[in-house]
Amino acid sequence: MGHGGGGLLSAELMTHLFAPAYGNETLAGLADSAVLSLGGARLAFSTDSYVVRPLFFPGGSIGDLAVNGTVNDLAMSGARAAYLSCAFILEEGTDLTVVGRVAQAIGTAAVAAGVTVATGDTKVVETGHGDGIYLNTAGIGLVPAGVDIRPQRATPGDVVIVSGPVGAHGVAVLSMREGLEFGADVVSDTAPLGGLVAAMLAVTPDLHVLRDPTRGGLAASLNEIATASGTGIEIGERSVPVPEPVAAACAFLGLDPFYVANEGRLVAFVPPDHADAVLAAMRDHPQGAGAAVIGTCVPEHPGLVVARTPLGTTRLLDLPLTEQLPRIC
Amino acid sequence: MGHGGGGLLSAELMTHLFAPAYGNETLAGLADSAVLSLGGARLAFSTDSYVVRPLFFPGGSIGDLAVNGTVNDLAMSGARAAYLSCAFILEEGTDLTVVGRVAQAIGTAAVAAGVTVATGDTKVVETGHGDGIYLNTAGIGLVPAGVDIRPQRATPGDVVIVSGPVGAHGVAVLSMREGLEFGADVVSDTAPLGGLVAAMLAVTPDLHVLRDPTRGGLAASLNEIATASGTGIEIGERSVPVPEPVAAACAFLGLDPFYVANEGRLVAFVPPDHADAVLAAMRDHPQGAGAAVIGTCVPEHPGLVVARTPLGTTRLLDLPLTEQLPRIC
Predict the structure, then answer these.
(1) CB–CB contact A140 B136 (8 Å)
(2) Has residue B246 got a pLDDT over 70?
(3) CA B289 centroid distance within chain
(4) DSSP A158-202
(5) Does the distance separating the beta carbons of A2 and B124 come in below 8 Å?
(6) pLDDT in tens, B193-243
(7) Least buried of A116, B105, B192, B315, by fewest C-beta within 10 Å?
(8) Residue B46 lies in a domain
(9) Which value, to the nearest 10 degrees, does the dihedral of the CA atoms of residues A307, A311, A312, A317 take?
């Protein structure tokens, strides 16, 4: 299971198996989406499969994730999603009314994200070879001129901003899956982030890095950026907003909220001169109302992420070996 | 299973469930790929998931299908594939050497097709919720200026050409799956068709329809075109090339080769003035060496496909309710 968790095992699979097999540099960039040139247009292109269990959870469904997840991967290159593909793998015997509800969720989420589902596919596998519905979406969008957002661009001095409280998606899915009562008031944060990113780019095209901390949570995203850029990252442990019910659920379950998946949050690395204005623009946007500065890039400990505790000590936030919660998206 | 078979049940799912849920006209075009405008570029965009069983079969693997299938869907709009996404859904416990062999097959097929795998994803599901490896690819490519290839453009007088013998892929997979000896000399026809289509477009940009007869075979593709265009189609039953071992296997199994899946063939609808030159160009190309004229579009029986038998009688070739062979691609 670990190879699908977005942690170290996933990264090894990419670095040692897929990238050499495909033999190209585009893939090796390891961003949420690839940025390509085609016919004079500068495009972002991304894909994700969705195997979340259960299909419906507080605040959303696999259909919402499939739209928002890929829309957000494109947004992390600065692109506004234009078109999505959507492919179903159905397990034989899945109720068609459930398929219909998921399709409706996809349609509604696409309208909310301002994206068109342009092409699709359906395959069916035998009972016992699937789990109701698996989805895949791929998306394309235009990258605005002058925008160059990628993990390699993080640099000492950059201000690290998160767009809102973390951990809600993972806790919402887990509480639904396990029938835990204490999670009843936590709903997934699944949301499209293209509008928020556009508002940030209106302040300055010179955002260095954007990342949506999904599998592996905030800690995995920060580690990927530290590794790709070679910069050190220091965050204030208490600066990261964690909703009280999420913190309580994580304490009960022995989870660290910094490692729990989010589906409607982003972390931004912004040059210090623009940080205040970008933060203000984020807070003016519905998807960024809870935005907060959580840390900075530092010249010390290059490639490593360190959290400063309330006691003034520091601890290493390392890349998780795997995801704490399998099939979270 | 029928809803994934590429037949009538698949079409109903699209028409009555997905298209209304997504609420857009692009999807309703029902072509192999969508043709879109983005940033001044005219793009083809397509996706397919691949659930073929077994993963390796005579002549290819799920990796070959995942590359060639999507490359070919783009080619059916006249586009040369430029970039692919590739997403794995792995069943827990799948041997990583098998994953590596599939990744290598993807890399090799991508080189052969002249396409770059630009972005990817990996998810893992528990044992008993997958079947080794499921793949999804999406692809984008440029549609040349002046090219407008879609099923609605078939018109009485068009010459119907198939690029080579039909039925090999389905028989190769089935013989492997069932351990049938008589199919031992049949290998899948899986191949990229972008080069062949480019050679045809060099003769004339005015190709009316291209289709790769995968699930549901030649009969399903012809029916989709007859329905979309409202033209009648008449083919000569003996004009369709069927390799002898394929015909023998089909006779033994009670299959009709016109309904068996192909993964490296196309059917073209060409205005009569250009038909001879297009056929000659096809025969000059490695992927079209066995090309043959199989029929024409006729003003009679609009929307229906009729096969003329050697006795001079006709029979209706209707849309299959489902695929004869599940999980063929």
Answers:
(1) no
(2) yes
(3) 18
(4) PEEEESS--SHHHHHHHHHHHT-GGGTT--------HHHHHHHHH
(5) yes
(6) 999 999 999 999 999 999 999 999 999 999 999 999 999 999 999 999 999
(7) B315
(8) yes
(9) -10
**Cβ–Cβ gap B100/A136 under 8 Å:** no
Position B282 in a domain: yes
Nearest CB neighbour to A82, from listed B3, B38, B88: B38
Residue to substitute from A88, A121, A134, interface B, most B β-carbons within 10 A:
A121
- Length of chain A measured in residues: 329
B55 plus B197 within the same structural domain: no
Nearest CB neighbour to B45, from listed A85, A110, A122: A85
A37-61 residue pLDDT tens: 999 999 999 999 999 999 999 999 9
Q: B185 lies in a domain?
A: yes
Domain boundary among the residues B142, B169, B193 is at: B142
CB-CB under 8 Å, B5 with A124: yes
**What Å distances lie between residue B25 and B8, B48, B163, B229, B325, CA to CA?**
20, 20, 30, 16, 31
Pair A225, A266 in one domain: yes
| Shortest distance, CA A2 to any CA of chain B (angstroms) | 8
CATH of the domain at B201: 3.90.650.10
Q: Which residues of A touch B1 (CB under 8 A)?
A: 92, 124, 126
Whole domain around residue A95: which residue ranges? 32-142
Residues B131, B195: one domain? no
Binary contact (A128, B128; C-beta < 8 A): yes
Which residues of chain B lie closer than 8 angstroms to A42, CB-CB? 39
**Residues B159 and B67 both lie in one domain:** no
Domain-embedded: residue B210: yes
Instruction: Tell me whether residues B46 and A128 touch, CB distance under 8 A.
Output: no
Question: What phi, psi does B60 have (nearest 5°)?
Answer: 175, -165
Secondary structure E strands in A70-208: 80-91, 116-125, 133-142, 159-162
Q: Which of these three, B102, B124, B142, is where a domain ends? A: B142
Candidate from A4, A26, A110 with C-beta closest to B90:
A4
- Return per-residue pLDDT of chain A as tens, 329 residues: 777 777 788 888 888 888 889 887 656 555 678 999 999 999 999 999 999 999 999 999 999 999 999 999 999 999 999 999 999 999 999 999 999 999 999 999 999 999 999 999 999 999 999 999 999 999 999 999 999 999 999 999 999 999 999 999 999 999 888 887 766 689 999 999 999 999 999 999 999 999 999 999 999 999 999 999 999 999 999 999 999 999 999 998 889 999 999 999 999 999 999 999 999 999 999 999 999 999 999 999 999 999 999 999 999 999 877 666 789 99
Bridge partners, B314 (sequence order): B308
Extract the tokens encoding B33. 């790929």
Number of C-beta neighbours around residue B96 at 10 A = 13
Q: Please state the domain count of chain A.
A: 2
Based on the fold, state whether residues B167 and B306 are members of the same structural domain. Answer: yes
